[in-house]
What does this fold into?
Amino acid sequence: MRLTRTACRTGVFIETLSSPGTAMVPANGDTAGPSSSQDDPAATMKKRNRPQYHPFTQQQLPACKPILAPQTVIPVLLFVGIVFILIGLGCIAASNRVVEVVYQYETSCIPGYMLDNKVAYIQNPSIDKTCTRILKVPKDMKQPIYIYYQLDKFYQNHRRYVKSRNDKQLINPKETNNTQYCKPEATEHGSPVVPCGLVAWSLFNDTYSFARGNKALRVHKRGISWRSEREHIFGKQVFPRNFQKGALIGGGALDPRIPLSKQEDLIVWMRTAALPTFRKLYGRIQVDLRAGELITVTMQNNYNTYSFGGKKALVLSTAGVLGGKNSFLGRGYVIVGLACLLLALLLTMLCLVFPLKEEHLALRYPLPRPAR
Amino acid sequence: MKRFVYINDDSCRYSYCDNRISNTKYSLWNFLPKNLWEQFRRFMNQYFLLIACLQLWSRITPVSPATTWGPLIIIFIVSASKEAWDDYNRYLSDKKANERKIWLVKDGIHRQIKAQEIHVGDVVWLHENDEIPCDLVLIGTSDPQGICYVETAALDGETDLKTRIIPTISANLSVEQLGKVKGVVECPNPDNDIRRFDANMRLFLPIIDNEKCPLTINNTLLQSCYLRYTEWACGVAVYTGNETKSGMSRGAAEPKLTAADAIIDKLTIAIFMFQIVVVLVLGYFGNAWKYTQGLKQWYLMYPVEGEAPWYDFSIIPLRFELLCSIMIPISIKVTLDLAKGVYAKFIDWDEQMFDWETNTPAHSANTAISEDLGHVEYILSDKTGTLTENKMILKRCCISGTLYGNDNGDALNDVRLVNAISSNDPDVIKFLLVMALCNTVVPIKSNDDTVSYKAQSQDEEALVNAAANLNMMLISKDSSTAEICFNGSKFRYELLDILEFTSDRKRMSVVVKEGQTGKILLLSKGADEALLPLACPGQQIQKYLEAVEMYSQLGLRTLCLGWHDLKESEYKEWSKNFQEASCSLDNREFKIAEVCHSLERDLHILGFTAIEDCLQDGVPETIKLLRNAGINVWMLTGDKQNTAIQIGLLCNLITSEPNSQLLSISGKTEEDILRSLERALLIMKNTSETKDLAFVLDGWALEVILKHSKESFTRLAMLSKTAICCRMTPLQKAQLVAILKSAGYLTLAIGDGGNDVRMIQEANIGVGISGREGLQAARAADYSIGKFKFLKRLILIHGRYSYNRTAFISQYSFYKSLLICFIQILFAFLSGLSGTSLFNSISLMAYNVFYTSLPVMTIIFDKDISETTVMQYPQILLHSQAGRLLNPTTFCGWFGCSLYHALVIFFITICAYSDEKSEMQELSMVALSGCIWLQAFVVTMDTNSFTYPQILLIWGNFVAFYMINLILSAIPSLQLYTIMFHLCSQPSYWISMALTVAVGMGPVVAFRYFKNLYQPSAINILQQIEQSNGSIQTSGNLESARANLLNLLTGSRKNRDSYYHPLLSDSAESARTD
It folds into this structure.
């Protein structure tokens, strides 16, 4: 290649480019190219007209042409199959190591006489909604143990909901009056609500406290949100104003003396979930728990999921390599791996039963063509 | 109807436009509206404008309006600025032309003015090498004979010099008189016919008497030509500005739409329909969800019944409409335009299509239709200059019954002829005299006293050159005299009249007066059938007919030469008639022909010349290859039947195999012709597959057929793989193209001369050979090549690859848009059918503009099978010809693939990122990454050959995706803030990606594998043959397979007509059915 290229630059055409099977030389070489440059205008004319040779412009770049042949496909399948099964088993193991306690309480925390009228129960502020339960730890749980609340059928991803917030107001104290997009939770008697919008307004407000025996387990609430959110999304100088002061109370209230950047429950809540079933971090327990230990949970069942028949659950979970307990990836990998192995086997068998010889190929060449 | 131009008279000058030329399409103030109007004539643009407008309504827009407005505005700005730039350049060149300084003569005073200030009636003074600013009637030149030379290349592409003569009436004007001359020119209204100017001129007293003088095109200097070899010339402006002949013949060509474009448009409309259905369904269920579920979701705070606006029901469907608008990829037009630009560049760059003899590279003037080259079904080719060299050499001749040049094939070196000349054989001498004088050749004397000839017709040049070689040399020639040097002594001839060649008359004559004897002679030359009937009775015609027959068999072009003595009185009388006819304003051509005919009679036939026009290099191979590729090749020529058939035989167009037949459609009367057509049609229908039939017909037969039986002919045309049409006029060539086009075939017309321009413009693809007959055809054409043999490369390599690539690019564009759209739709089911967009605005915009548009470009460099293989198995062209790679079926495949991939991405994403990880921005980024990963593998999968730019683009794009998102993740004001950092640090993210790819691509690979091995397409097989290094090509099996293939290919060619039976080769010998 190099030789030809330099040759072309000096204006002498050499008949050497033999990229596989293609003759680069024009069939009629008798004009001898620009080398016979006795008259200058003609020579420059030739230089101007003639396309510069470059493998790119001639579409002659060296190329690799892989083809789906048994001898490449079967080994690749085997390799992929084995690797996937191994990764899958690893994932399953990682997932199994995570200990998870899920306690669903939206029905069990309602006194029996109110079961027929759950919405009335939850909307009546005068009823004490404390609910105490004892959970048994199934396996040893290493700290940190994460406390999540899980909601179901709650559409944080609903268009009306997800847009109903103003990020400028959240970070910038000067933008307090900016309640764009926040309707219908934008202003209260003419003055802006901070933080405005449906997302903040519907803040989850169930609370949990834990005790092992008689000794309370401390729930660490700091650091449950991302640092980046605390620093760049929620302002240190932005304080709640007019929050939950309207006729309709949505969810939890906020302490107006604490800036938004420290309202970590709000921060977590406002990172909207993508799916109607979701868990959000409530806090951490920085103590190891033994298998068989009994944990007393005291819950304030304040949040209304009853209007739309959603479930609520409390989740205690240890941390795993791949996050929480989720065997999906592991199973997926194992299934794909097995499928690959099976396919490899099938292909091998097919190759053995119907060997593809070259004659075979040739005979098949003239394929009948369907009508246009 | 008529225009009266008063020379040097100010009274009428303002009734016509001034000489300001304007080629611009837009002006400053109408650019925006006009350009927008043009752009919005496309359905796609209208659609996107509608979407963009809807997006301005914030209640329904799922993402920021910038996602549509951004790309839309970019696309508009790009095409508008391209238009503006072109127009600005046109404006600049116009301005330059308009402000050029021109000398004007007014009342004897020379003044310099700007070209745009010339008015009709002004006398313009031109100097040597000046460009002519407007259409002028020549009234004076520096040449004492009153001639001047012009180069008309800019007008008609012909590079030879043309002679222009001043009208007789102004011949005697002195230079002073020219400045003051008054008169009137009576000419037709402006038209675009550059070969015709039927006008009269009268000069006013006191200069000359009041005589009417006829004007022809030979008395004009047309705009944009150049004055050459003439010191000065002056003329009266008759047409100015945009009313000149060149101005009138300009016109923007209609943009051509390729077959692939048409399918893409259809698919777009289909997708649009699908989109409407999806929107309606989702909208219905969305409203249903809202009223059953949504009102219970207290945190959504739906307004109470009755407070909602009346249009409330339409909100959710409209939201879905906007969400689904990305189904139709906004980038497809830009991507395809870019790709087509690259195809065109590849053609321009192709060194193997560079003609070394004339130093012309191939050029694609129309960048938009490369993929149609891969669809060509009919090639209609000119003969002379296209299949042949158009380098004429006199090879044989027959003078008064003696055949010269029969022994060695070269008459010029035939000893008998040389002897005959030296012994002053009167017939031979007269023969040479006709060769040397009866023409319109201009001898040009160079410094070293050698004479070279400039001729408009290659035949004439050949004859003059041959005469010169045989010692009869034409030395000089002006409008009235010619000088001939024979055996060292000079003879003068007065040229009295030229009876010009027209395609109707098929002959030309000159009337000359011998300088010494004063004898007046009529010298004629022309086609045999035009001249032989005029022969004086009693001559031995039979011998000549045999000679002509023999010459035609050899593929030589014959011309008959004759002469005739004229008496002085006879000539005088005729001359008066001729003058009269030349002056007539209407029907002049016909009247002149009549008058000429009255003189051209009782000719003494001298003999025949036979000129060889050898085949171009590589023509038979090319035609064979193209026919193997399933392309029907027709030859349309102005030449006579026998020559055409011989050339057809020589270049593989027809073969003389025993089981082939050439059907001749001819007859003496109209009924005969029609009957012969019906018979041909019957034979065609009933012929078995192994027989190869072709038909041959001439111009007259075609005329009759088109008048009476167009339908039968169309049917015949569809059945016939090969046809030879001779004696075609340019219009008839175009008509034949139109017939095939109207039958739904994709036609390619190839030609080299001005007579092919109409057919080139009419055909789907016009290819011009930049040959000896000037560049006229090449300029009108979409592609210009140096030699016919490059056509095979143009079609089989460039056309085929372009089609393959466009097929992929367009379908892939839909695939990727559908993919992301399906994910949005699936997400709708998990977001309460409220029309939430899973992806944020930036991701959506970047997905279309960056992430997916780069890898698809890799396919521009892809080759499914190598060029060598394509040339070896040209039948593979059928794949693109029949649109195998881009049709509703293949599109369904892509559609299904994108649906499957969307399901895979979506379910893996929501399962892997459930519960505590189910965070909107993260989940959306996981899904987006899934799309990017999968589409990179899809492109990889569909790439057949990997070169480094491809690998760079595919995987570089991958890296770019992560880079861009990591950068975006560092900007706090974006929704993406920190998301990518989080994801990249999670092992589960990478594990999910690998799973997505495995599940998404696994079935695709398996499907491909099985198809490759057990149901291979011809392309797959050729790929495998290539892979196995050609070892298979030697096997005998393949030979039979190939033969078999050919049959099948031809067999399945066209199933449009139920009674179609394929035809194979044919023979000329067995022909002549009547």
About this structure: The CA atoms of residues 263 and 310 of chain A lie 25 Å apart. The longest helix of chain A spans residues 70-97. Confidence is low (pLDDT under 50) at residues 1-47, 359-372 of chain A. Chain A touches chain B through 110 residues (CB under 8 Å).
